[in-house]
Amino acid sequence: MKKEVLTEKINLVSKEFGIRNVMAAPKLLKIMVNMGLGNFKDDKNFMASAKKDISLITGQMPTTRPAKKSIAGFKIRQGDIVGLSVTLRGKRMWDFYEKLTKIVLPRLRDFRGLSRKAFDKNGNYTLGINDHTVFSEIDANKVDKVKNFQITLVTTAQDNETGYKLLKVLGFPFRD
Fold first, then answer.
1. What class, spelled out in words, does domain 3-169 have in CATH?
2. How would residue 105 be classed by pLDDT, with cut points 50, 70 and 90?
3. Mean of the per-residue pLDDT values for the chain?
4. Residue 1 pLDDT more than 70?
5. Which residues of 58-97 are buried (b: 16+ CB within 10 A; e: fewer)?
6. Mean pLDDT of 118-123
7. Residue 153 and residue 32: Cα distance in Å, rounded?
């Protein structure tokens, strides 16, 4: 998104909420992409495939997330790799945001918009993607297992209403 257009859209949100200081205006800070490995945490082929797929989707190599403590019921030991994570900022964040809103979400089956209920109390929005093959970088013919992951849009908004207005102005497809 061009900087002038982005500044103009953020100024609209600032005027609506009566924010005079430009630095206090709500902004999109970062986008986090997380994938849990679940039952496949011991499968090296699945881990390599998941790393490759996430790096293709985001354009950045994921970091591995170890378990913080052992949980016997889930057969997890402290230090086991249980997930992958990518934090996008700057140009990569905006490129991923454009791809997500204009290409990926409309390709989802029976997509009618996203719910407003997925905000946390601080204006951040989290959504889950059940099928990673909706991204055009992934060749569906070469996929052995369908992977799901979560995308969190982290904003500087102080509450849900401000975060909603910011994402709505930026073109995020919410249900009416």
1. alpha beta
2. confident
3. 85
4. no
5. beeebeebebeeeeeeeebeeebebbbbbbbeeeebbebb
6. 88
7. 7
Alpha carbon distance 74, 66 (integer Å):
14
According to the model, what pLDDT value does residue 31 have?
94
Q: Distance between CA 110 and CA 113 in Å, rounded?
A: 9
The ranges assigned to domains in the chain are 3-169
Q: Where are the alpha helices (DSSP H) in 19-153?
A: 44-58, 90-99, 105-107
CA dihedral (41, 45, 50, 51) positive or negative: positive
Q: pLDDT at position 130, please?
A: 86
Triad 47, 50, 53: Cα angle to 5°: 150
The Cα 8–Cα 18 span in angstroms is 15
- The reported pTM is 0.85
Between CA 166 and CA 156 the distance in angstroms is 10
In Å, how far are 66, 114, 123, 166 from 161, measured between CA atoms? 34, 15, 7, 9
